[in-house]
């Protein structure tokens, strides 16, 4: 199903026939998806469905078995992560991956390198205002942060790079509900400036509060799609919950 209620026009990200395999085991079986400028898109689906593999392949972290990826009108199918980041496609990986041997500030500066090879300190004040808990610890090693604070730092590192598309892969991992809400609110605010968000989230209800459009990933294929409203009111929501999503926690 392709929703007629979706934002129209050229997509910022357009993925077609994406297949991903680890050795011979194919885990993503020919996926087509789009994200428009300023659109907040969520990928829902059970653990192991292939969401992270899709995102890793899109951002150039792992190879694609087949498929094409266009971003901002340019074919980036064969591009590595450095190139995709420079083009404005930033993937904040699952599991708060930050450089624990570097300070909070140096982690954030790394996030600015895609745009400026010398780093850009002027971008950091805004981030410290958005996330005071890391601002207070800017000179500490990232290893001293709690898991939740490291997760915020990972998201913040993505935001300071001023992406055109920010991919957030399960940012809620290890975070209190209020902090999750704050991160998704910050992401939603970015969309008003034209930034696109592609979110993977297990907290379905929370994600659908923010999303414009939703894809359901089932065993490496897309099991359905629709606007957040269509999903909430339709039969898809039942399948999402049957897939093991965390209704109660949302
Ligand atoms: N590096 C890897 N090597 C081999 N298999 C992997 C690797 N990463 C993920 N997989 C497998 O690919 C499938 C999809 O995983 P993943 O993309 O992480 O799903 P999701 O993000 O939806 O939880 C799973 O069966 C997982 O075990
Ligand atoms: Mg994953």
Summarize, please.
With 250 residues, this protein is of the alpha/beta class. The protein has a domain of 157 residues: Rossmann fold. The chain is built from 10 helices and 10 strands.
CATH-level-2 architecture of the domain at 13-97 and 171-242: 3-Layer(aba) Sandwich
Tally of helical runs: 10
Q: Which structural class best describes the helix and strand composition?
A: alpha/beta
Shape: globular
What CATH calls the topology of the domain at 13-97 and 171-242 is Rossmann fold
N-to-C series of helices and strands: EEEHEEHEHHHHEHEHEEHH
Which molecules are bound in this entry?
Answer: adenosine-5'-diphosphate, magnesium ion
What strand order characterises the main sheet?
6-7-8-3-9-10
CATH superfamily of the domain at 13-97 and 171-242: P-loop containing nucleotide triphosphate hydrolases
Poorly predicted regions are none
Q: Say how many strands there are.
A: 10
CATH class of the domain at 13-97 and 171-242: Alpha Beta
The termini sit apart by 26 Å
Indicate the percent of residues in helices: 25-40%
Residue-averaged pLDDT? 91
Q: Estimate what percentage of residues fall within beta strands.
A: 15-25%
Largest sheet: 6 strands, mixed
What features would you highlight for this structure?
six-stranded mixed β-sheet, 250 residues, 10 strands, binds adenosine-5'-diphosphate, binds magnesium ion, globular, four-stranded antiparallel β-sheet, alpha/beta, Rossmann fold
How would you describe what is shown here?
The chain has 250 residues and is α/β, with parallel strands linked by helices. It has a domain at 13-97 and 171-242: Rossmann fold (3-Layer(aba) Sandwich), CATH 3.40.50. The chain is 34% helix and 24% strand. It is built from 10 helices and 10 strands. It has helices at 51-58, 81-87, 104-112, 124-130, 132-135, 147-160, 177-191, 204-210, 228-233, 236-242, and strands spanning 13-22, 25-35, 40-44, 66-71, 74-75, 89-92, 165-169, 196-200, 213-218, 221-227. It has a 6-stranded mixed sheet, with helices on both faces. A hairpin with a 2-residue loop joins strand 4 and strand 5. Helix 3 packs parallel to helix 6. The two termini are 26 Å apart. The site of adenosine-5'-diphosphate has 10 residues, from helix 1.
